[in-house]
Design goal:
Layout: E1 11-16, E2 20-25, E3 30-38, H1 42-45, H2 49-71, E4 80-83, H3 86-97, E5 107-109, E6 115-120, H4 125-130, E7 137-141, H5 164-175, H6 186-189, H7 194-206, E8 212-216, E9 219-222, H8 234-241, H9 253-269, H10 299-303, H11 314-322, H12 328-345, H13 349-352, H14 361-368, H15 378-396, E10 398-405, E11 419-420, E12 425-432, H16 441-473
Helix pairs in contact: 5-16, 7-9, 8-9, 11-15, 12-15, 12-16, 14-15
This protein binds MYO-inositol-(1,3,4,5,6)-pentakisphosphate and adenosine-5'-triphosphate.
Catalytic activity: 1D-myo-inositol 1,3,4,5,6-pentakisphosphate + ATP = 1D-myo-inositol hexakisphosphate + ADP + H(+)
Protein name: Inositol-pentakisphosphate 2-kinase
InterPro entries: Ins_P5_2-kin (IPR009286), IP5_2-K_N_lobe (IPR043001)
């Protein structure tokens, strides 16, 4: 990147999350990830360039030295911290402002520090990694936490039955974050059972929220950003996807979307190069991965048994990393209090304990080799907190799946392992958003966990009482409708064209 030639017209708005705004280059397969701050955050506006650069370098180090060894060399792109002209950033910020979703405009892009993260554009992967000739089709999934807590510190029994995502849905709807409930359940996606995975992705398609996006040629064509009340149009999506399907096209829109889902399942279960991801293996009790009572799937389907994920597939690696959270926030919070107390007494220990990094090999060693027994030390507490933070990153990351029709891949780079997914497609997977979660977030996480659970319990109790009242007023007919649960058929919800 030639700094003196940086021109805002070469970049366009690509997307954003809670912490960063992403712009993509109009010609090269590159993106710039710029951090965002609350408008009134004077502290960040006062940061020096060196402090801001250090912050971004910390993100790169964390991705490269901590997350990459745990998740696998080939699917993590750590990027590079870059310094950019302030004038370019100001112009860029003005240019992208009108494209930003209103719901994200409570924060402003950092135009003060002159620092950003430069990464390959992973939504254009098919251009650079799969095939030069194949169309670029890319799916982004933010799978969230794929297991039920197995920690003895869990005090609310419901947490062992219903997963956090499913409970959180009720809280999000009540707060107005979303207008409709998602029927997606992460435990279905992480089950390794192809049927359950199929339904999980179908539910993502039907109600994507911020968990599912589709890009073609690097452009977002499907996914909910701002109009949170708008129902997604699956027919229109199917039409737009047609050119990306191999010859011998599925006859109907429904069949086409079904093939897409199967291709995604295949990519998620495909074997990555073995031996690159970190050890040791985390063993959680089987019931923590079995099923969630919040899932709309028929109990029979859930009981049929799930084989678990094959080793060396991307979901297995993510789940293993998520399961570093062995204590649950309820077990981690008292350890956080222990560390806080220690730091009040000996503030200079913050550096030695690597609370804010550096994220180097020593940090990874503390994560991987943290003892399982609490000896009362601050070192044990910090080790568990490090593990929890790494797990939090894995619970909030996104998977990008680039799909290309088979038979057109005569230009595949030989060094890259491309897996057959569903016959008809080849795929390549990567993981993004691997930032460190701040140590200070633990107090917030603790409160949020309690709010989500309390709200869910209240909601279930209220619904139960309403149901009982209704039954007293209008007794049900002989064939009880409760024998049937939602989501038993394979029908995708969409209108005929
Ligand atoms: O707490 P959660 O599960 O709601 O996750 C937050 C995400 O909300 P989600 O439920 O996925 O819509 C949230 O995503 P959105 O802003 O809702 O798109 C962020 O990813 C947030 O991470 P960070 O604090 O910005 O680093 C996430 O916060 P962390 O929990 O990862 O700190
Ligand atoms: N390297 C990349 N290539 C292509 N697209 C990217 C890349 N990095 C990020 N994006 C896109 O930009 C969006 C926002 O990026 P990212 O998830 O990193 O933001 P964030 O603010 O950290 O998110 P969160 O809300 O989860 O904290 C992603 O959902 C993805 O669509």
């Amino acid at each position: 990147m030639e700094l003196e030639k940086m021109d805002e017209n070469d970049w366009r708005y690509h997307g954003e999350g809670n912490r960063s705004l992403v712009v993509s280059h109009v010609q090269n397969s590159q993106v710039l990830r710029l951090l965002k701050y609350p408008m009134d955050d004077a502290e960040h506006a006062r940061q020096t360039t060196d402090q801001a650069f250090r912050h971004i370098q910390n993100i790169v180090d964390y991705s490269k030295n901590v997350m990459k060894p745990l998740l696998g060399e080939e699917c993590v792109h750590h990027g590079e911290a870059v310094k950019l002209p302030l004038d370019f950033l100001r112009q860029l910020s003005l240019k992208v402002q009108q494209e930003r979703p209103e719901s994200r405009c409570d924060k402003v892009m950092d135009t003060f520090s002159g620092c950003a993260l430069c990464l390959p554009n992973l939504t254009q992967l098919s251009a650079c990694r799969l095939s030069k000739r194949s169309p670029q089709l890319c799916i982004e999934i933010k799978p969230k936490c794929g297991f039920l807590p197995f920690s003895q510190h869990v005090t609310q029994e419901v947490k062992r039955r219903v997963c956090r995502f499913c409970m959180h849905q009720h809280f999000k709807l009540a707060n107005g974050k979303w207008k409709r409930m998602s029927r997606y359940c992460p435990l279905d996606l992480f089950s390794g059972n192809k049927q359950r995975m199929y339904f999980a992705i179908k539910h993502l398609l039907e109600e994507p929220q911020n968990n599912f996006k589709i890009f073609t040629s690097g452009e977002l064509i499907y996914g909910c950003e701002d109009d949170r009340a708008k129902q997604q149009d699956l027919c229109e999506l199917a039409q737009r996807l047609r050119p990306h399907f191999p010859s011998g096209q599925p006859p109907s829109n429904k069949a086409l979307l079904s093939e897409l889902i199967q291709a995604i399942v295949g990519a998620l279960l495909g074997t990555l190069e073995p031996g690159h991801a970190g050890e040791p293996q985390r063993r959680a009790p089987a019931e923590s991965r079995a099923y969630c009572q919040g899932s709309p799937l028929h109990p029979e389907l859930l009981r049929n048994g799930s084989p678990g994920l094959p080793k060396h597939c991307i979901l297995y690696r993510i789940l293993q990393t998520q399961m570093l959270d062995s204590l649950d926030i309820e077990g981690v919070y008292p350890l956080y209090r222990r560390v806080e107390q220690h730091l009040e007494e000996i503030p200079k220990d913050r550096g030695r304990l690597q609370i804010d990094g550096p994220y180097n090999e020593k940090f990874l060693e503390k994560v991987v080799n943290c003892p399982s027994e609490d000896d009362g030390s601050v070192e044990y507490a910090v080790g568990k907190i490090h593990q929890y933070r790494v797990a939090m990153t894995a619970k909030d990351c996104s998977v990008l799946i680039a799909l290309a029709p088979c038979g057109q891949d005569d230009t595949l780079e030989p060094s890259l392992e491309i897996q057959p997914s569903k016959p008809g497609f080849t795929s390549s997977v990567s993981i993004l958003d691997l930032d460190p979660k701040p140590y200070e977030n633990i107090a917030h996480q603790y409160k949020l966990d309690s709010k989500i659970v309390s709200y869910y319990l209240w909601k279930m109790q209220t619904e139960k009482e309403q149901h009982q009242q209704q039954q007293q007023q209008h007794p049900p007919p002989a064939l009880a409708s409760h024998l049937y649960r939602e989501g038993q058929d394979c029908t995708l919800v969409f209108q005929p064209v």
